[in-house]
Design goal:
1 helix
């Protein structure tokens, strides 16, 4: 009888271990869920970076537009000053002072 009781106790112990193993598997499942949540968080962070890059691109476009405006202002000023100082008889009066292209000479009549 005592030997049979010992076997029963051992078998009971095995069942407890199997139950503990099941709990351990649930823990693994929960951990895997956490990994999935972490990956989703990473995707959100990557989307945030994309938004920042898009805003940065908009800012760079604004800078390009501003640079273009400065170039236009410089061109107009150069044409007024340089063109106004030249006469129709000047052989170089049709050469732009900045980019060297041809321009209409400013002639006072």
């Amino acid at each position: 009888m005592e030997a049979e009781e010992g076997v029963t106790e051992v078998e009971g112990g095995v069942l407890e271990l199997e139950a503990g193993n099941m709990e351990g598997e649930e823990g693994v499942m929960e951990a895997e869920g956490g990994i999935t949540e972490a990956k989703a968080g990473t995707m959100e962070a990557k989307e945030g970076v994309t938004e920042v890059e898009a805003e940065n691109m908009e800012a760079e476009e604004g800078i390009m537009e501003a640079d273009g405006g400065v170039m236009e202002a410089d061109l107009e000023d150069a044409m007024e000053v340089e063109g106004g100082a030249r006469s129709c008889g000047d052989p170089y009066s049709n050469i732009h002072p900045i980019h060297g292209g041809e321009i209409e000479p400013f002639c006072e009549t």
